[in-house]
Fold:
Amino acid sequence: MLQLYFSPMACSLASRIALLEAGLDARYHQVHLQTKKIADDGGDFRDISPKGAVPVLVLENGERLTENAAVLQYIADMKPERGLAPAPGDIDRYRLQEWLSFVGTEIHKAFLFPTFWYKDDASLAKPRARIGETLSVPSAHLAAREFLVADSFTVADAHLTWALLLLRPAGVDITHWPPLAAYLERMQTRPSVREAIATEMALRRIMPAGAA
Structure:
């Protein structure tokens, strides 16, 4: 069985959504990112991944995958009939990779990561100044489309959905970008998204202080 190491409402939420969309069973291991401890046994998460970051997907043969772009595409390719990623060789396969990279670098690492991990205004000035311009890109793209790639839900949508969910607690009101607000509302009607959010929000409520 697949195993996913995650932290509630961290970027690994996208992997949980993808697993649910794919109909894949997995064993989930919660990680406290501040302490790098695994919740169920107190083990050192760095023994699982020296990067100390989620998600980590442990495959059935014991190999481990890290980084959202790789994990999400692997999950999609396990169930190609679900259409969570275009087929290799299809130009939309590379559009998918474009969006996975964009969300991971321009929204996650460039804005969300420093916002939640750095607290001084000097470190946050540049990310805050750039986020409006960054969000205008997917906003324009989604103005006349339902999904990021082609005409159906893909793992890129799982990734962007997570990022948009985190923008509000990061101090960004996405109603300033109506296509993004409408998109997030649509995504939250999907059963997989609702289930993933409900599961991880419940876990956040019972986490010990400072363990996120």
The mean pLDDT is 93. DSSP finds seven helices and five strands in the chain.
